[in-house]
Design a protein that fits this description.
alpha/beta; four-stranded mixed beta sheet; cytoplasm; GlrX-like_pln_2; redox-active center; Glutaredoxin; Thioredoxin-like_sf
């Protein structure tokens, strides 16, 4: 028990696993995806593995692996971690424990934004309650373009994406309009381009033939 607690306290995120455990691999992948680099201890590769496994069971971890600790505290096994992830608590827990930092999180969200932007030539990030977002969408449709619309207020990671859009140079941060993978801007920039006659040439490759 003492060794388990000692190892669990040495890093902000610690996972006890077994090399042959598929669920352990999934939990590790989830942590990496969230931007954390947990310390991983594979019990089947450790001379004291059996004793540590018994200690983990005594802590209430059943099955014994994966056993996850954040900030030195036991948070549970796979089902507990997944529940925390689904309700949004896991990421905040990792941030509070300094297992991931805001800067890393912003880089990850910027990557997510760019992945979404690459899906189609014209992409708009919006909010369902935003009148200006609606107006920009209508303008594009009137110009014969059907943009991909991502409503960030309906995305579990919307707040982080909003901060990422601001870091990328979008004032607002919605609507944030991307054409051909490049940030055009928000409402003011789009309307200025439209009034100057510059918007239609940008949209020409993506306009419907009908």
């Amino acid at each position: 028990m003492d060794r388990v607690r000692d190892l669990a306290s040495k890093k902000a995120a610690v996972i006890f696993t077994k090399s042959s455990c598929c669920m352990c691999h999934s939990i590790k992948a989830l942590f990496y995806e969230l931007g954390a680099s947990p310390a991983v201890h594979e019990l089947d590769m450790d001379a004291s593995g059996r004793e540590m496994e018994r200690a983990l069971r005594a802590l209430g971890c059943n099955p014994s692996v994966p056993a996850v600790f954040v900030g030195g505290k036991f948070i549970g096994s796979a089902k507990d971690v997944i529940s925390l992830h689904v309700d949004g608590s896991l990421k905040q827990m990792l941030i509070d424990a300094k297992a991931i930092c805001e800067f890393v999180l912003q880089i990850l969200k910027m990557d997510k934004v760019m992945r979404l932007v690459s899906e189609k030539g014209v992409v708009i990030f919006s909010k369902s309650s935003c009148c200006l977002c609606y107006a920009v969408n209508i303008l594009f449709q009137e110009l014969g373009v059907k943009p991909i619309n991502h409503e960030i207020d309906k995305d579990p990671e919307g707040r982080e994406m909003e901060r990422a859009l601001i870091r990328m140079g979008c004032n607002g941060p919605v609507p944030a309009v991307f054409i051909d993978g490049k940030l055009v801007g928000s409402t003011n920039e789009v309307m200025s381009l439209h009034l100057s006659g510059s918007l239609i040439p940008l949209l020409k490759p993506y306009r419907s033939l009908s």
